[in-house]
Design a protein that fits this description.
Number of strands of chain A: 25
Low-confidence stretches of chain A: 1-8
CATH superfamily of the largest domain in chain A: Oxidoreductase, molybdopterin-binding domain
Mean pLDDT of chain A: 95
Number of helices of chain A: 5
CATH class of the largest domain in chain A: Alpha Beta
Largest interface: A-B, 59 and 58 residues
CATH topology of the largest domain in chain A: Sulfite Oxidase, Chain A, domain 2
Helix content of chain A: under 10%
Order of helices and strands of chain A: EHEEHEEEHEEHEEEEHEEEEEEEEEEEEE
Oligomer: homodimer
Shape of chain A: globular
Distance between the termini of chain A: 65 Å
């Protein structure tokens, strides 16, 4: 088999200094959606509130004729239908997923792509069977290097026609917690989340968890398809090959307190004690600390951390704020053992793996 | 009880001639979402793909302590918990809902609000109990004029603090098909669709179907709250009182053919026979005709109409297109007994009740 090695066709675009969101970006925003932040209240994000990013169209897949192929550098190529996947050992895993482009629309200048603000996140209980067992049954050959995952979604990006396809190193692919999943919160996968079968790579940004998974191919070389070599990279200029996007960096989000103005989303809060509640997560390991600033980032105080719902799930936190009348900017940030979220976001051309501290504008009355 | 009679505080805003989508509009677009048009394939829109518009925050309502009050100009004020509503006569109704602002972001100049393109629609099977029976049980007094519906969602809009509240004439409210609904597609309502109880007013734009319904109040005067008197009106200049937004105007949408480019959403189609598929609906009565143009609107031909899934549900249609290589603009439009969708949209200041014909840009190769 061949996998085309792709460099950029057309470069990604960066918006001009005063350029508003374009029609192209709005088209993406109208299709894909974030999690309204008040849904941070739920341990498991309810149906339809989990963030969704679909690169091309949502494929219309008949579960009765669906097949998953395992091939490439294996002893025996395998094919599974949905029933045979469901009959295999079953694992449930609660996982917080975040889009690698979360925060992109807050960058200056703004990389032109799906224009996320803060909300491209969600947590679900995924049910599936370990990928490693499928690979072991097929028999991975000794020269294996990477595993390529191919979805049923098809389109073009920067002039490159493709099925959505991502590669993962063999070492990452054989982690016990990488699932070939067919249920989300105890229900068959919804169409937009990869029905009938998708990959779940816990701890990684969402691009690794290939939806509408039709083929798993073991390679004797590094996978250099578009989504690995071009799209999901942290680049500092357009000539830069960049670094791959991998694990989710730490982030905390707060349920915006009080109530909103319809158009500006500015919050109105009554003076007095306010219990701030939020969640924090990291794909790099446990969240070790959440900090809150109620003075625009001048001073910070620790939030109280609750119990993390699972190794890959977000962690609840609370903070008691004594709100006094005035205009306030609330900031929150999380830390893991690698460090704390930045208050000023380092920039990259494609707006990937941003994790700038959230800011919420509040009028206390 | 008092219901404040509201005129505009601050006027709604219209974007400048070259003004891109603002951060305010993007914040709304990131929370609220349309139905990706490939989901037109489904008779009933799957969970999470139905359009959502939430004015303020999604309330967090405990179904165990939830209560619905019926009061005002009635003989006996009533209170219902969720179990008592569920114990009442049950009606299932398949309803296509559309946001009154659908198409707003396509207007020139663009009214600044939730920036919908074409996709603010969805169809669900709603289960509930007829409103008219609750009103009859309470005993509507002879001086009744309007019925006000109050939600649990709270915020400000143009300086006016409010619970979301809409009024309906008594004549419209006692229609047999107006439901107090507690299930969507056989499941309890999801949070963003009004859990645990909402109103469904079939045939009307979505603003009438009040979510998180907590109170039904019979009035002896016309309801003049913000959402009726100010927000949902078709106005031609800011001094204009305007006409109320009521029933859904006819609209047809097509599943965009072929496959998309990620960023531009331009479609790529192979030359040859292409089966176009879509849906059409009207809240004013049956869809009588769907027309397709494959030459940018110069000529139109009739699509074949399928069976409408219910009195208030969309109607499927198909059209066989012989695609020849080149750049093509496909347009579709529906008609009901009142007329056909416009190709050029008449403008109004708030971008309400637009139903301009859909245009899809296609490269045939």
């Amino acid at each position: 088999m061949t996998f085309s090695s792709v460099r950029e066709g057309e470069a990604s675009r960066v918006a001009g200094p005063d350029e508003g969101i374009s029609l192209d970006e709005l088209r993406l925003a109208a299709r894909n959606h974030g999690m309204p932040l008040e849904a941070l209240r739920y341990d498991l994000t309810p149906p339809g509130l989990h963030y969704v990013l679909v690169h091309y169209d949502i494929p219309f897949v008949d579960p009765d004729t669906y097949r998953l192929t395992v091939d490439g550098r294996v002893g025996t190529a395998l094919e599974f239908d949905l029933a045979s996947l469901r009959a295999r050992p079953k694992v449930n895993l609660t996982v917080t997923l975040e889009c690698a482009g979360n925060g992109r629309a807050r960058l200056h200048p703004r990389p032109v792509s799906q224009p996320w603000l803060d909300e491209a996140v969600g947590t679900a209980r995924w049910t599936g069977t370990p990928l490693v067992d499928l690979l072991a049954e097929a028999g991975v050959l000794e020269d294996a290097v990477d595993v390529a995952f191919t979805g049923l979604d098809h389109g073009t990006d920067r002039g490159v026609e493709q099925d959505y396809q991502r590669g993962l190193s063999l070492a990452a692919a054989v982690g016990r917690d990488v699932l070939v999943a067919y249920e989300m919160n105890g229900q068959p996968l919804p169409p937009q989340h990869g029905a009938p079968v998708r990959l779940i790579v816990p701890g990684w940004y969402g691009m690794a968890s290939v939806k509408w998974l039709r083929r798993i191919t073991v390679l004797d070389h590094e996978f250099t398809g578009f989504q690995n070599a071009t799209a999901y990279r942290i680049k500092h200029d357009t000539g830069d090959d960049g670094e791959p996007v991998t694990r989710i960096r730490p982030r905390a989000l707060v349920v915006p307190p009080g109530f909103p103005d319809f158009m500006t989303r500015r919050r109105i809060v009554d003076a007095g004690p306010v219990e701030l509640f939020g969640r924090a997560w990291s794909g790099q390991g446990p969240v070790t600390r959440v900090e809150v600033s109620v003075d625009g980032g001048q001073t910070w105080a620790n939030a109280a951390l609750g119990k993390q719902a699972g190794k890959y799930a977000w962690r609840p936190w609370t903070f008691r704020w004594s709100a006094v009348p005035g205009e306030v900017e609330v900031l929150v940030r999380a830390a893991d053992r690698h460090g704390v979220q930045p208050v000023e976001q380092p920039w990259n051309t494609q707006g990937m793996a941003n994790n700038m501290a959230q800011r919420v504008s509040v009028t206390v009355r």
